[in-house]
Amino acid sequence: MVTFVNKLTVHGDFDTFLAVKDRLTAYMSAQPGHVSNQTLRHVGDPNVVLELAVWEDAAAHQRAVRSEEFQAIVKGLGPLATPDPGLYETYEAGSGAH
């Protein structure tokens, strides 16, 4: 399992941002390999949102983001928010992995 974490700093209209984000989340949730999704809003800065999406593996996530439909939807976020994305794997304390 891997987790996609995207910190989004919203600088456009927040309601418009949510509409685009919700379309994107609905699309991604329907893709093969998608396990779960969660959206978090920063308590001290309501313009900062974290998107957490769990995927079966990195390859499933990559297939989803390379699709034309994903590219068309995500293009709408550009004028509304600045992303800071990353794909993470679970770190097990004491596993020796670095």
From TrEMBL:
Residue ranges of domain ABM in the record: 2-91
For this protein, the parts annotated as crossing the membrane are none
- EC number in record: 1.14.-.-
Pfam families reported for this sequence: ABM
Keyword Oxidoreductase assigned: yes
Q: Does the keyword Oxidoreductase apply?
A: yes
Recorded hits in Gene3D superfamilies, A to Z, give:
3.30.70.100
SUPFAM superfamilies noted in UniProt: Dimeric alpha+beta barrel (SSF54909)
Task: Name the UniProt key words of this record, in alphabetical order.
Answer: Monooxygenase, Oxidoreductase
Top-level class of the enzyme under EC nomenclature: oxidoreductase
Q: What molecular functions are annotated in GO for this chain?
A: monooxygenase activity
Record's protein name: Antibiotic biosynthesis monooxygenase family protein
Q: Which organism is it from?
A: Streptomyces monticola
